[in-house]
Amino acid sequence: MTALWPIALLSVCIAAYNGALVGRIGRLSPFIARHLSLVDRFGWAAVNDVARLTIAAVSQLLFLMVLILVTRINPLASLRWHPAVIAAGALLGVAEMGLASFMAYVLMRAMTSLGPARSLGAVDDWLVAARGGWMRYFAHAVRITPPWYLLSVTLLYVAVEEVIFRATIITYLLPHGSAQALIYSVLAFTVVQVLHTPSWKTGIFPALGAIAVGGVHGCLFLVTGDVTPLIVAHFTFFLAAVW
Question: Where are the alpha helices (DSSP H) in 114-227?
Answer without folding.
Answer: 122-130, 134-144, 147-162, 169-173, 178-194, 200-224
